[in-house]
């Protein structure tokens, strides 16, 4: 976990999975891959295996140790619903989120079909809890709009869209049952352009539908130069946040022991190796 995040719409990041594989046009310049690959082969570094997908079971219980309530972006360096992450491991991540309920969790995926299927089956008990927000990435009409439909078919209590990198005009978006929209342009080397009218179209649709709108950035090769204002102001809106009070230290330690006992009978052993399927070793 990173106790502080530079991502504008969250406080912290938590990565019980590291690494991923590309699935759609929004992945072309994946910042997580660029970051992770810098450390491939560096002995002892968390990204010694570069961007190869792997479970990080030693990170599973981290949120229970953090006393201060935070907004936590789950798997900023991966995709929890990646096809090689076992259901049992996703259930373990969900169990930690359910019990460490003094944080707000922001779970974002491009694998929306798996999100939809699990939220109506193995993750049903956590789908609608108010401190776990479920979101999908939307970069264009072809792959992004079907992801919104998948999200709308779930019983998620809080649903959000991360429309970043916005690669084209999305046209008319169905915002039914959507609780939050984040919009941003691509940043970094090779950043693809964003147009002001695409952003304004989404912002207006959010206004009409009464959906909080968060404008993250214009992006570009040097994103700090282009800033994040629209109509001369920032848009930093959030859905209504329901927070539970953090428990004291002794209760957190007790919870840690309970969760350890609950999750550890099935030892999740990190399995390395790029595209190979991951296994839960019993
Ligand atoms: S799904 Fe996300 S983490 Fe995975 S490659 Fe694409 S952009 Fe990167």
Describe this structure in words.
With 282 residues, the chain is an alpha/beta fold. It contains nine helices and nine strands. It has a seven-stranded parallel beta sheet. The protein has a two-stranded antiparallel ribbon with strand order 2-3. α3 links the parallel β4 and β5. α4 packs parallel to α6. The C terminus is likely disordered.
Q: What class would the helix/strand composition place it in?
A: alpha/beta
Mean pLDDT: 92
Q: In DSSP terms, counting alpha (H) and pi (I) runs of 4 or more, how many helices?
A: 9
Total count of strands = 9
Shape: globular
The SSE order reads EEHEHEHEHHEHEEHEHH
- Provide the list of bound ligands, each named once: iron/sulfur cluster
* Strand order across the largest sheet: 1-4-5-6-7-8-9
Radius of gyration: 19 Å
Compute the separation of the termini in Å: 26 Å
Taking pLDDT < 50 over at least 5 consecutive residues as the criterion, the unreliable ranges are 270-282
Name the helicity range. Answer: 25-40%
Content of β-strand: 5-15%
| Major sheet attributes | 7 strands, parallel
């Amino acid at each position: 976990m990173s106790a502080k995040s530079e991502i504008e719409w969250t406080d912290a990041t938590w990565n019980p999975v590291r690494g991923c594989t590309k699935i759609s046009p929004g992945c072309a310049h994946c910042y997580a891959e660029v970051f992770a690959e810098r450390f491939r082969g560096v002995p002892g570094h968390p990204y010694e295996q570069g961007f190869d997908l792997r479970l990080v079971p030693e990170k599973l219980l981290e949120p229970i140790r953090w006393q201060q309530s935070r907004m936590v972006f789950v798997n900023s360096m991966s995709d929890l619903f990646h096809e090689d992450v076992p259901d049992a491991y996703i259930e373990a991540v969900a169990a930690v989120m359910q019990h460490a309920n003094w944080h707000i969790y922001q779970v974002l995926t491009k694998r929306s079909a798996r999100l939809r299927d699990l939220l109506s089956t193995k993750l049903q008990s956590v789908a609608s809890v108010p401190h776990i927000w479920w979101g999908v990435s939307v970069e264009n009409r072809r792959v992004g709009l079907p992801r919104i439909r998948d999200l709308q078919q779930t019983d998620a209590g809080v649903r959000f869209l991360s429309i970043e990198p916005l690669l084209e005009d999305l046209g008319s978006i169905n915002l039914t049952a959507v609780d939050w929209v984040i919009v941003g342009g691509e940043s970094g080397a090779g950043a693809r352009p964003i147009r002001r009218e695409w952003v304004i179209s989404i912002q207006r649709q959010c206004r009409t539908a009464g959906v909080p709108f968060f404008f993250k950035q214009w992006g570009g090769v040097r994103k700090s130069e282009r800033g994040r204002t629209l109509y001369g102001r920032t848009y930093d809106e959030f859905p209504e946040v329901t927070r539970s009070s953090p428990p004291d230290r002794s209760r957190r330690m007790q919870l840690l022991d309970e969760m350890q006992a609950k999750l550890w009978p099935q030892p999740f052993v990190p399995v390395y190796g790029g595209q190979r399927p991951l296994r839960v070793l019993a």
